[in-house]
Amino acid sequence: MNEVKKIVVTGGAGFIGSNLVDALLVQGHEVHVIDNFSTGRREFLNSGAELHEVDLCDESVDLTSVFQGSQEVYHLAANADVRFGMTDTRRDINQNVIATLRVAQACATAGVEDVIFSSTGAVYGDSVEHPTPETAQFPIQTSLYGMSKTAAEGILSTFAANEIFRVSAFRFVSVLGHRYMHGHAIDFVRQLHQDPEALTVLGDGTQRKSYMDVSDCIRALLTLRGKETFEVFNLGASDYCTVRDSVAWITEAMGVEPKVSYGEEKRGWVGDNPFTWLDVSKAAEHGWAAGKSIPDSVKGTVAWLLENTWALGIQDLRK
Amino acid sequence: MNEVKKIVVTGGAGFIGSNLVDALLVQGHEVHVIDNFSTGRREFLNSGAELHEVDLCDESVDLTSVFQGSQEVYHLAANADVRFGMTDTRRDINQNVIATLRVAQACATAGVEDVIFSSTGAVYGDSVEHPTPETAQFPIQTSLYGMSKTAAEGILSTFAANEIFRVSAFRFVSVLGHRYMHGHAIDFVRQLHQDPEALTVLGDGTQRKSYMDVSDCIRALLTLRGKETFEVFNLGASDYCTVRDSVAWITEAMGVEPKVSYGEEKRGWVGDNPFTWLDVSKAAEHGWAAGKSIPDSVKGTVAWLLENTWALGIQDLRK
Q: What was the ipTM of the complex prediction?
């Protein structure tokens, strides 16, 4: 039996956060969740966790008491959608930059030792190196989302440089699987659930993307640590697929044969990266590798969505 | 004679901004200055410019009217001090991130074509590559200042990726010269002006730093442009000196022989980079090189400070 710890998970009612909370509770820890349910779901929140229903950006709330006595904090609360950054330009700064600063300060005051952070492969902008390593060249940001996650990493690495706490930052590819609620797969399944005959795809379908199953992601968050005060790890499958591959797996899993309309652009939207593939050899050297293949993860995601069709009815609030 | 343009300079009463405004007025342009005099000086503001006394972070102010009809905007307003970030953790985010977003949005609404931005070599964190090129590896930030300028670049590059305006971002080393008001040289001159017998230096004096004269900086801001929608240029001298070299030049210029007390740390403060030296070959390929040597610039700075001893009496408000 491991030592029982008080562990705080921000965004603990979200897709990745709630899966993480479940895993931490199985390990016997005392788990506290901070969530404001802006995108998190009450259905996902494990009743074994203690909930603090708080908006991290609310300046009137002192977060320190929640973090007091906690050695580890998983900071997952964020705006997680790279699209729509330019229609609500303050969202990424508020939810990803200022929220991270407030969490960092509360962790500092409370004496937290380890902060585990969900970053993103979007920090690489339009990478010129594939697969992209953690030491890729200085990125040029193409989305406010990528900018904001880079800034959040920079806030945490500054606290780490000041030896206030250790940081493990994980740059994810898109995550699929159990409780998946936003991204291309749900968009496709939602469309096909309404009309099995037609599917409209943003971009020309040649976009190359790497994915990761949430089960692999949780295993990394729980186990991957380095020696430095600030460590960053890429996480993703060792390979990639095209959007056209994904369309084929999803339609096959759903047993439909729609007419697929592709766009003409190489990107799905401005700020979309036409090629996302991360070099995960650093994580591999530390003993981690994705266990689930991309097609298996896509098919598992479709199965979960078809068992939970209420999820298809949830309007995407981020638009 | 060049075409006369309406040009806006944010931070146009500051050290670099006011020198830039003078140069733009000499070229015959209609120059508008936005400054809130938090660190800018009324003494520096050219009376030929139109002043808009505005805090860029003030949400109640609509900035668009100032930018209307302007093709070029020089966005120089910022917190420019890398120290004290951890004592007032919101300053860098407010003055460098949110202010830049507000300027970018106002430029977008007003149809500005070119935004010229003062970034910093601090965006490279503790670089492992010397001299550090624009394509250096993904930096780990060690200061909230470096984080905030990286984020500001990311905001502007996102607008550029959306083809809203072109951006030329300049990553400076520390700038010296006419109207220099903060940094190591004024700290040293202030101390020696009070007591020519004693000088206390932060850090052990082995820190290696590259500098640039403000005259060279202004020439770069005015003339260096690239072909891409978002272009970044390092700016600095082609070489570097140690803090001990600088102490020698300053004491020589002042004709004093103090007892110098060095600290024991390799850095002057947490977040200080012990070695700052930028690769300026990209700027050189575009026809720019620093014209003034580091010792000449240091000596010129001392001469200006000794002619303007009122500057030594200005308390450093950033502490």
A: 0.94
Q: How many domains does chain B have?
A: 2
- Residue B201, domain member (yes or no): yes
Q: How many CB pairs under 8 A join A and B?
A: 114
Please check whether residue A124 touches B, CB under 8 A.
Answer: yes
Do B166 and B194 share a domain, yes or no?
no
Task: Identify whether residues A170 and A184 lie together within a single domain.
Answer: no
Q: Which of residues 277-316 of B touch A (CB under 8 A)?
A: none
Q: Are residues A128 and A140 in the same domain?
A: yes
Q: Do A62 and A157 belong to one domain? A: yes
Question: In terms of domains, do A123 and A88 share one?
Answer: yes
Please give chain A's pLDDT, 319 residues, in tens.
568 999 999 999 999 999 999 999 999 999 999 999 999 999 999 999 999 999 999 999 999 999 999 999 999 999 988 777 788 899 999 999 999 999 999 999 999 999 999 999 999 998 999 999 999 999 999 999 999 999 999 999 999 999 999 999 999 999 999 999 988 999 999 999 999 999 999 999 999 999 999 999 999 999 999 999 999 999 999 999 999 999 999 999 999 999 999 998 887 776 678 899 999 999 999 999 999 999 999 999 999 999 999 999 876 544 4
- Do A113 and A144 belong together in one domain? yes
Record: contact A232-B140, CB cut-off 8 A: yes
B202 and B94, same domain (yes or no): no
Claim to verify: residue B62 and residue B195 sit in the same structural domain: no
User: Measured between CB atoms, does A132 come within 8 Å of chain B?
Assistant: no
Tell me which residue range forms the domain holding B309: 182-210+238-275+292-313
pTM of the model: 0.95
Residue B144 maps to a domain: yes
Contact B138 A139 (CB under 8 A): yes
DSSP chain B: -PPP-EEEEETTTSHHHHHHHHHHHHTT-EEEEEE--SS--GGGS-TTSEEEE--TT-TTS--HHHHTT-SEEEE--S---STTTTTSHHHHIIIIIIHHHHHHHHHHHHT--EEEEEEEGGGG-S-SSSSBPTT-B-PPP-SHHHHHHHHHHHHHHHHHHTTS-EEEEEEE-EEESTT--SSHHHHHHHHHHH-TTEEEESS-S--EE-EEEHHHHHHHHHH---SSSEEEEEES-SS-EEHHHHHHHHHHHHT--PEEEE-SSSSSSTT--SEE-B--HHHHHTT----S-HHHHHHHHHHHHHH-THHHHS--TT-
